[in-house]
User: Fold these one by one.
Assistant:
Number 1:
Amino acid sequence: MDMPGEKPMTAGPSMISVSNSVITGGTYTQHIVNEIQRVRPGFELLREAIAPSAFHNSGERFDPPKCHPNTRSNVLQKIMDWITDQDPDTKGAMIMWLYGAAGAGKSAIAQTIAEMCYAQGLLAGSFFFGRSDPTRNHGRPLFPTLAYQMGLVFPQFRQKLDHILTHDPTLPTRSLATQLTAILLQPLLALASEKVSSPAHLFIIDGLDECLDQAVQCQILEVIFTFVRTFGLRLKFLIASRPEHEITTTFNAFQLDGRLSRIALDEDYQSYEDIQQFLIDKFQEIVATHPFRHRLPSPWPNPDDLRHLVQKSSGQFVYASTIIKYVGGSKRLPHHRLDVIMQLRSAGRDLPFAELDALYKHIFASLDKADVVLILLIIAFPMICDRNLTFATCDVFAIGKILALDPGEVEMLFCDLASVAVLKETIIEAEKDFSRIEQAKGREVTALSILHASLFDFLQDKSRSGPYYLDVQAVRLELVQKCICFINICLENLGEALLKIWLDESFDDLENADAHFEALKCFINNLDRALSAPALHDDISSFDIAMKFNEIYAATGTSTVEKLRHTLYFRSEFLPLFFDILNYLGQSVVSLYTQHLSSFDSVLSEYIAFYYTDVHLTFLLTLVDYVVTEHPTNSSGDWSFWYIEAFKSLRDKDTRRLALLEPRYSDGRNRLPFKYYEHIQRYLADPSRSGAHALNGDRYAAGARSILLMYKKKPHLVRFDYAQRNFLVFALERASRSKELVILCREALIKIPYRPDVEQAMENYLRRADL
């Protein structure tokens, strides 16, 4: 009999398997069961789309970085005041961007804020990106994870979200904009219409730069910006990241009308003081708890070592924490490991900076290989050029010109290095920039700011940097060659450029002048070590001193001295050091020395002949001899001031030739350029070099006449102070017979203020002249 709900069927051939059936003979009976499948709640479905490892308190992130006690107090307070609307400066801001260099402590701050807000019921959700974690190094789980966490702390929100996701469980797979709108905005708008709100209103997104897709980084920001700008919901976003180019550009592109606040982790937030406190506390902890604490010297560590570590950190906590992890290792003596850090002991097989090195390698690995080569040259230029790290005064655009880079290429090269190095406009204070005579406003340069002092240690240690090793000697040779090439190219148009400035014509190519100055400086500061490479001999041999001198001074006028640095630098710093180095190296470069000295002599011969055509210009040559021979302590004196005032018409003639009266480049004060004078004096004192231009009694007599003529015509300028008296005595002792000088001496003996040393020198000269 057929039972209700049963349907007789004829057995077909070869029945393989039957479910819920009874088989009898040639027929079987199937029982039809009408079962309604259970529908899963939408909120439960959302759990499959989230990244639990991105929670601030996830097990995968156990022992995450947090702010050390009693550090970062200012920045933590600033953020909490923004969250709780206690800061009038940020009260209208719905987004706060916390940014800083790699290793500055952004994640530790974000973690600490998350824990504080979680304890106070203010945290709606958090997402900590992690580059090496495949569950949280992309943007897909971001908004589902934030919505899920908000549902846990806000039951009414969870109910609304559950309804939305039950209707469309695929929402977590949609675009970022759709996700944010559907699973965050819609539930919140529905609750707002019902006058329901939650105290938990803060979302924290940390490490946005660790999302692997840069385009997604920007999309995340764009949808959040649109959300904040369009809807007036009480919801805030704390976003922490490195200031990478794409992220910074996106933040700058949106007009948020006061809804965005920024915090840069720099010196304003006492990072050096905080790092010092962190190191002090951690070293004390090692002293108190380390298994080998009884082996530690006392006191330990040395205060000087502590100061060194603080400075080396450059305000970045990653350096300090790396040091502590290494020094505090339980299987080694802490003081020995600190010696390794201080380079007082070999590291052996240890890798004390492994964490820091991995950070640097990751940053450089993200760059094109060709770009890395140029970046390393630019980074190396200031340290090789000045033999110290004076990055703050080195214009990177000038370096770019020396390296033959196109306009804008320097900025492009450093776009992806913002976490370790940035370009910024810098005003060099007048007292620190000695490149001009008048320095009321200082000088603006685009400087390269290296945010990690330890980066140089990394780059110069091949065992640490590997493919990014900066071979200083090889780079030095390459840069010197590029500088020589650039200087030689500049010779073709430098004269015309200087002439325009001298004539007060408009001239907007001062970048070329700055580049020329930097090239000269790099060339001379590395000449001694660069000459160890025979390949450079030909390059240095081709450097034409005579042409260089003529190009600069043929077109140099009074205005130029105030506007261009390299004119003074070439004369007072470059030339003397150039010859001193060649002379010091001796036989190995004797041919180079002889070649360039001969070239220099030819220039002096041409110009000095002109100085002997006027008694007052001749005075300048005898002044050179006096300064070098007597080493007067007051050689700065008033020479430039009173001589220029007395003979303004002659200053241009001097400046456009040997520029003997212009002050030294290196200190910017009214000091005579002693080293430059030395080389001219050697020429004047050696008849085998100067021939008819050597100093003699007639020329010393002319120098003495110049002083006395000046006193006769403009006595208010010549007070016979220390420098003037000593020079006159010096010149009279060496002067030959001169009728004009005898007359001037006799007149001066009557009118001159009482100066026994000068009177005695004049009387001695008159007796010797026997006239």
Number 2:
Amino acid sequence: MGTLGTYEHNVEIDGKTITFEAGTLAQQAGGAVVTTLGDTKVLTTTTASKQPKDFLPFFPLTIEVEERMYANGRIPGSFFKREGRPSENAILVCRLTDRPLRPTFAEGLRNEVQVVNTVVQTVQFDPYDVVAMNGSSLSTMLSGLPFAGPIAAVRYAMLRDGSWIAFPSFEELEEEAVFNMVISGRVEDDGEVAILMIEAEATPDAWVKVEMGAPAPTEQVVGQAIEDVKPIIKQLCEAQQAFVDEVGARDAGEFPLFVDYTDEVFDAVWGFAADRVTSIYRDAELTKAERNDQLDVVRQESIAHVVADGPEDLDEDARGKQASEAFRSTEKKVVRQLIVDDGFRIDGRGPSDLRQLSAEVGVLPKTHGSALFQRGETQVLSVLALGTQRDGQRLDTLDPQDEKLFLHHYNMPPYSTGEAGRVGSPKRREIGHGALAERALIPVLPEQDTWPYAMRVVSDVLSSNGSTSMGSVCAASMALMDGGVPVHAQVAGIAMGLVYENGKYTTLTDIQGVEDFFGDMDFKVAGPENFITALQLDTKLAGIPANVLQDALLQARDARLQILEVMNDAIGEPRDEVAETAPRVEIVSIPQDKIGAVIGPRGAIIKELVEVTGAQIDVDEEDGRGVVKIYASSREQAQDALDRVNAIANPQLPEVGERYSATVVKTVDFGAFVNLTPGTDGLLHISELSKMAGKRLNHAEDAVEVGQQVLVEVKDVLDGGRKFKLEYVGERAGGNDDGDADGGDDEPRGGRDRGGDRERGDRGGDRERGGRGGDRERGGDRERGGDRERGGRERGERGGDRERGGRGGDRERGGDRDRGGDRDRGGDRERGGDRERGGDRERGGDRERGGREGGGDGGGERTRTRTRSRSRERD
């Protein structure tokens, strides 16, 4: 800086104050400024190398963003407890800053320039990206570099009432905003504001807000907002200029500007190659590879011509280098003249024509969802992978978002352009393109509370000839539908181009690689039929009039609708369900007071559920209810876990007159505990067992053993469903050849008397689920081989719980005595369970309990017995 001391300048916009400070920090940097918005502070420095790198054919500008975790009072979560590689958000802010800054530097500058933004303070209230962008402009002006600034950046958001606000907070974006734009621009010599960059997207819940009456971000609405934001950009530019005038820019000396070629070299190349280049570009039948091959021949001949007969004041190396750059400019001039003067595009299309489109889904049938989208020679394969919410990405950044459940990753390998090159971690461009498509798709995704999956879509560019990022939007949208994700609508993307010559703007639809490379603008628009979900503008000009952008938006909509037709022909609605290979997620709501019963003492019950079913289970509390999320690898596994959770938390109580093929789960001197329904046990008194044996018994083991099935009838329901009076009806055989193990018309476990399990509501009715209902629907013991054939205690295919180390009948487990019984576990005392019931002795035997271990509020032995009995049923 040119002056010592501290300088400060404030500018107020929409009730928000932006402060610029300089003169104290980073005094050895070429330019340094601290920009403040609310409680967010960013230190920005701009420094240039002393010597130019004249051998480079481009301007070596580097933008860096350093997210210091101390800015939010946090210690990094990595093993080394220090910041490492930049976060994805930091990389996106780098790109956001680079795009308007780069075209504003003087052409021909070859000194290495580095702009570093260090976030030194934030309370996760205001986004720091626009703070860094304005600071980058101001610090560059203070550095004394040849820079046609200032440029200004504004975050501009449309609220659900249709109003727009500048610099919205994170809270305002989440709660009220429908559409969100970052717009950058500069003030031209005539006082008009020219737009340099736009990055915009609909908010994640925009679809829901629009359905609830909020205005949709249509082309007309967004186009008008671009015009309305210009006074704010002008105000910020004037504030920066006033600050520089007060502080004074550093005297950095002269910076040499290098020309790519002399006029003499260009004239030589143009005269030698222009006609041949024009002929090649006029041949609309050529493929990209064929055209490049022919141009390479002309390029080499042009270079040889200039090297042999070029300016004498240049050596051969300089002649060759300048001739190569001059040939590229010759190509550019030819392509632009064909478009502007003749209205001819190199593939024969008109300005608003699309290339040939094709769309296909299910190309990889064993994946969770897949789609192939092709537009001309651009081909993108997108593949969906579904996971549980546990598979979401955990974020450790300065943004308030700490988790992502939808990821879109974009890859563009070198073979997509017919080249050999580096393959590995994604470059900044790939990260940026992936994030753009991700933002385009998020607004149409289902809400998390109704769709409990994590989603990752990978878009691989297999062939590239322009507009690959928008091709990935189309392919990814179809892959989501193919995977059964209930998206609100299909999303398509289109890339628009612009050529400005002789005061005339020509807007191009669906630009290909050459038009992007030689054109002046890349304008990408994505969305469903009714509004825009993502928009991105990059320009090589010093600014584009807002009315030109408005016209481009309307032209883009026409193209987007045509693309949507092709995509909807391939798949118009999401699949009815996810692929067989996808994980299964079930969500069940349970009473708040049942959360403890599902979890159990020290997590014993939920651990047992996980062990028995193989599913992963999460229990949370939301809005005064318990929410259980079950993650499983198959539909059967998920249903088994769901049934077991329902048995604990939403039990279906037996009713008088119902008959059950009950499984003996425990024997005591005064009777046997039998499992009636999942989670509900009852006591069959020894007097009933005596009927079964035909003589008076002293011990239940003399009549039944654990795992045996007996036919019982509920004679009475007592104590509000906590106790049941059971009567022995007959022994449940292990099944016969006819599978009629119930003795003809008797229907245990509900039968006709209960109206079947159809009345079991949300549990889906065991009959409808197929495989867990009444014994008839389950194939009875026919399919299970009967408990007697299973050996009861040995448990068939599972190798017997004897081998699993104590999960067989109680006898194999050592009974409750080996487990410490209810007395030794002491678990129910902690739950307030057996304190009320006592042990088996203290509660006066299970007569006092009414024999129903699973019906009370405690979650101890009752719940354990419940889950064990379901395990037997499943086997």
Number 3:
Amino acid sequence: MALTIVGGIIFATGCGDKKPGAGSAPSPVVDGDSDNAGGDNGTAGDNGMEGGDTAINGTPQVVITDPADGSFVLFASPNPAPTVDLQGTIADNATILAQNIAWTITAPDASTSSSQGNVNGVGLSVASTLAYTFDQLGAYVIALAYDDGERIGNDEITIQVVDNLPVEVDIRAPVDTDQDGVADLQPVESAQLTLSGRVREMDGDQVDTAAILWTVTAPDVTSTQDAGTTTCNGAGTTCTSTYAFNFAQTGIYSVRLEATDTQSRTVFAELDIVVVANTPPTCQILTPANGAAFASGETVTVSATVSDANEPALDLTVEWYFDDVTGAPAGTGRVDQLTATFPGAAACEAHTIVCVVTDSLSATGTDSVGFMVSSLPTITIDGIADDQGNNVRAAEGEFADSTQVTSISITTTTDDAEDRVAPGADMTLTVLDSHTGSALAAPATINPFVATQFTTVWDTAIGLGRHTLVAKITDSCGASAMVEDEVVVAPQMQTAQAVAGTDTWDVRDIFAVSGDAMYVAYRPDGGDNALAYATGVSSDPAGFGSMEDLTQLLDALSQGTRVRDIALIDDYIAFATSDGLIICPVEDRAGGNLSLAVQDLANPVECTLVPDYINPQGNNFADSETRALAVLPGGVLVAGTDNGVVFMTDPLGLPGQGLQCLEDTTIEDIAYDPISGALFIATNGDHAYRWDPTFDTCAMTQLDDNNTPMLGSDEVIHTVLVGSDGIWFGTESPSLLLYDVSNNAWTVYRPASSPMAPGSAVLHLAIEVKTLGTPGAGRDILWVALDAPANVAPSVLRRDEVLPSWTAFSADRDGIPDAQVRRITIDANGVKWLATAQGVAAYAWP
């Protein structure tokens, strides 16, 4: 029961609150048109109705808002009779008329009085108030009514005028924050809670402590009653009653606190408490790892994480056992970590560590790991050589000079603490090729005490490609260790290999799309723009393994347009061309066949040419030359053009619909960074941009603003590329710019700090990812395509991220057909394909 004091007069709400305000539901709506759908012209009408609808006059909504139904008003003689402001609201679907509002009060002696009251507001909803003096003891019935001429809405309450207020009772613990009658706390079964409530007299009387009673009804409907423990203030008008109760069952308990005053009026408060089942705690051992090995007498830290859904982890008891959980634990306490020393056990002895965690209700959780009292052996790969005696370069881990390797020798160094002091205990070495899953050699037995270095030979012919070697050593106790290294068997090339049949091509771009399959955009000698889908190149060199001429498609769609970039979207391929965007289906992307699924190249009905991009305002781009493409998550295609960037949210449904940004700017290249989720844009106007896609704004960050004084006026940024160490930009000047996204910092490489020759231009960049000899390690190899001023000047650069080091390749020395390398693309086998003004070259430098 709650009490409210208003203007010195006390209203006491009874045991049950008044139900939500009386009155009628909103007016029904009748459809006024012929389609029975509501509204004949799509225009919304008043009162939530659509145009054309007609409202039936509903009953006015009338609610008495104060005082609450069942309230008490104190009239204690010789004090004057109390005056109370009665308050209500009236709402109707027509303007409220004040003269039609009526308050009616029926006194305990059955006499009645009526009044219009005072109206606040005008229109469809008003408030009405009436100041009324209650001069009799007993029950008053208060009614508020409104007559709109057709219907009457009304509300009615009853209040009690008394000369002595009843006692107030409320339950204070556990807490019910949202006052929904259910405690916030959900204790676990068998938990003991101390219930707490307050009992007080609001008119100065003393609380009758003997008339306070707690009643708890369990889910099985058994009830327990107890007077609890009561303490009061000095005047005895306010008391706190507590009762400790064990909630043994799961389910809903009903708690009731009641008190009776001197006039035999009983007031109570109720609260439901939901008791949940206990969830056992859990324990997960973090260290040592399962299968770990330790030397006898070694000190080892064992640790675990413990958790419980019902109580704090620090309140749990954790016990550690070695081997046997029936004996005394090796350590215990309310902590989850223990440092222990293993006893002087014999070598090759297996043990078990067990973690047992117990909660306050004795529920337990366990975890265990096995370990060996034996030091782990160690192994390193010292060298790898092929059957011709060529050693692997230490920093690379690869072969580069064999068309096929018939055997590989792997030299390893091994060691083990136990076996080193026991010459008779041998270790077994196995080398696996994780690329094929096969063993490179039969397991070899070695004695590290005699020789710690061992060489095994993989005597099976090894094909081209990348292979990961896993050298695993197992000691006499069964403990093992392993190490990885990578070898790449590549075609025998120390120079670039010109692809036969392409020497008369002015190759504009080359795009690797799957395996060794690629699209080549070129101009044959004296011809117009052409396009080919090519696969493979043989080692003689005799040319591509196969080639499909797609020039008819370009002629049919856009009169010999030049292809400048490509992108894959689902089962389609998009070509950025000088005449717009061409989108065609591919045969089987999932199966790696990315040739075009076009029946007739001269009439490619399966393809679409989008010559103009349309922004949301419906304006066509003035210049539709497309220069670069990128695909964002969700299939959003980004096209860089001679007139800005277009973000197409549905390129396969309606190409060109989307957002246009950087108008009047020629976009040279676009790259998407999956780590930051940002798009990086290179332009020909000395600016680089970052755009964090929102698809509703063109707000971009100009990266070079006050950060890159190395960019000259009207500098052309030809290319942008995302690498593991940052974002690379290549410019005309020439320079290579590395942008650190996290720190917003730049590193600059120019001819003075790299092998680039003055007068060169950086035209394209490519990244090749390498793996090192330790599991999980890797590095980027950056490949740079240059427009070199002469054949003796470098036209291709290779930068190793780890060393770091530069390697330069030129046309006169390294077999590159022309000093201008326009694009580098890397296929799945690591072969670098070079697009030059005098044909295609393949380069297998590892």
Number 4:
Amino acid sequence: ALTTASILYLLRKLNVKYSILHNAINLFFEPYLLLDADGNIIELNTAANALNGKTRSETLQTPLQKAWSELFAQIHSTREAIPTSKTVVLKIGENLRTYNAVLTPALNAGGEVIMHSIVLKPTPSDSEANHDLIPVVEELQNYQYITEALLDMESLTDVMQKVTDAIVTNFGFQAALIIRYSPEENMLHGLAFSSKFSSNLKQRIKTLLEPFQIPYNLKYLHLPLQPGNIPAIDRALAGETVIISHLRDLLEGWLPSKTSNHLEQILGIHQSGFVPLRFSDHTQGIIFVTCQKANISTHRKKALQRIAQQAAIALNNALLYAQAQQEIAERKETEALLKQSEQDYRGLFENAHDAIIIFEPTNETVLDVNQRACEMYKIPRDKFIGLSLESLSVNVERGKQNIAKTLKEGSYQKFETIHHLLDGTIMHLEINASVIEYHGKKAIVSINRDITEQIAVEEKLRFDALHDELTNLPNRTLFLERLKHAISRQQREPNTLFAVLFLDLDNFKNINDTLGHDIGDKYLIQISKRLTKNMRKVDLVARFGGDEFAVLLESIKHLNDIYDICSRLLQSISLPVKIKEHELIATASIGVVVNSPIYTEPKEMLRDADIAMYRAKSSGGSNFEIFDEEMRKQFLLTLQIKQDIQRAITHRDFILHYQPIIRLTDNRITGFEALLRWQHPKNGLLLPAEFIPIANKSNLILQIDRFVFDEACKQVTQWNKDGIWDDKLFLFINVSAKQLVLPSYLEHIESVLEKYPLNPARLGMDITESAFMDNFKKANRTLHRLRTKGFHVHLDDFGKGYSSLSYLNQLPISAFKIDMSLIQNINAPNIPQFIKSMISMGHDLGLYVSAEGVETEEQSSFLKSAGCDFAQGYYYYKPLDHHQVEEVLIHREHLSNP
């Protein structure tokens, strides 16, 4: 719909020229008439009506000869194609008055007179008044030029430019500016500017204004208004014609006083003025003029006010026109968008991926459907329309209540439901329903998306997230969730009895490493089936990863039930498993924890079940242990030791002792083994056996290993600097199994030797058999790289625990150490023969043989006679602190010769 502004414009557009013409001639104080080519009066102003004594209706469209015969008789012979002036005498009331009748013709393109204007100017009574007046004919021509410009339907800026040109050219002003006022922005925008400035003066003005970002051509001026900043403008906007004697008074608050004084000086302005463009009591803009040689006379001021009134009409009409054009364009755009929207809607409706059904809300009769709905429900469109929604399926879950809510609240509803179609198909749907107007009536549009596959995928993802991929058993996440519910239930029902079993296969790693992961995976699947088969329906069996399983036993009546289940599980697992040509046998260790009020979190029960499982495994495996208070104490003690070890690493409470290694052929020292000691703040000096086994079960051993290597290299470097270390001596350092499989181990070794430049050929790494039993390939690769860099590798504790004979030929070792347990049992049956065989075998393999733990002369003599190369132990030297080592190094009498 058109706004009031649009309607006003459209009405005025038909009569805009007449409106401007009528208002323009009424601006004249003198009587003004406009005659057509035949002498008929087509317009006159109020002053002419008053002088003639007749009403406007009696005069319009009447020949001048009839309407004003007295005037006609005196001027009819002077209507020529050029402006003329003639003195006429008219009777006004009882008096005769003399007027200068100024006749100005209006010509068409062919030079023919199409109308005349007549202005009656009272004859001046004195010469002084006449001196200030612009000649009558010239003034009328000026007004006519401005009126014609305002009647022109060119662009607003072009029209206003003609007006400023006329003001400057025809009314004797130095410069003229028309500014439009925007109340919404509270800004003034230049429309037109004219001046008589010379090119040189223009350049000077431009240079002066540039620093203030003010354009020379003020038509491009955009001035934000601030109340009180330029008082003259505030007064003009309030409707007052303002005359200013000094330009600097105007520019105060806009330009610095120095700049405004300079500008006033070069312009030579005598006076300037602001005339408001008022229409319907609203200021549309301002005409600003400057006068160079004289004051702005009263007559000029009135002339400007007349021009301003005409310009205000034109400006208002232009604004209405622009607003109307914009609204018409917006309406056309809206109509086009609406039409396009309808086309788009139909296109989207028909081509939508989702089924769209529009139905009548009361009886749920289908009013319209798209193609996707026909495909989804397998019903042609012509049969679909008119059906009731109930006839689409034999059962609709959760749908009707939501549709009723949509209708009642008139709101948008999104919900999921299940449709059981007539052909037996079960379809999961996501429905978006809302109330719409359809052909003038209320209806409901339902957008149905088939999410059957999505639901299946989500269920599969949920299952996968909560189940082990290999065995399909519940995983740790689901187990912890169920265990949390069990703990919560026990808190509500204190008499509830349940238990957690933590199960670990004893020798699964051998199966996996020997036969490969494929056989190992198949074995785990079979074990999983056995575990599940031996459980009750209320129990939960989960795989935590690797060969670890957990069982949640719920609703237990007696502790004996736990014993029976654990025994049954151990027996079932120990039975042979046939996979391809392999018959596999394994056992398991089970840790059990029974619920108690002290447990509030699942991780607490799992922690204690894990502790009990390790107790069962340490007792030989194929067994189960129930967690008790003693285990808790042992666990807390272990935890405390771990914390103390971490503190010792941080506070450097670890120290190194060095035990000399003796060459048995001459009893001389050939090197030292760096041995770790812990200077505990409470317990004194601790030996490795008291804390290394605990450190080995965590990554703390890695930090300890690095400390030992760093500190030993640092100490030997210092002895080198002190000149007491013999370059022929060896230094042996123990390396843990975990360290050998770390990719960063060799990098650390290299970085330490960059800091402490020692010869790798005089450094040896002592490794235990367990170091390569767990991951032989990785450990062996690291050892070979160490050997390539010049390090010696010695196999420590040989003859204890694992049988490593099969590995001797593959490892890059240069010696092995006979374990001290054999040395200390040298008098036991067969032990001497066994030791001699070991020494002989080592020599046959090209290896040196060393013995550790030598404490008596008898042991030393036996080893020397058996051909053992090196030995160490309390019989020769106990481990020495660094001060004691320095004493040995300084005296040098016990050191080996080069």
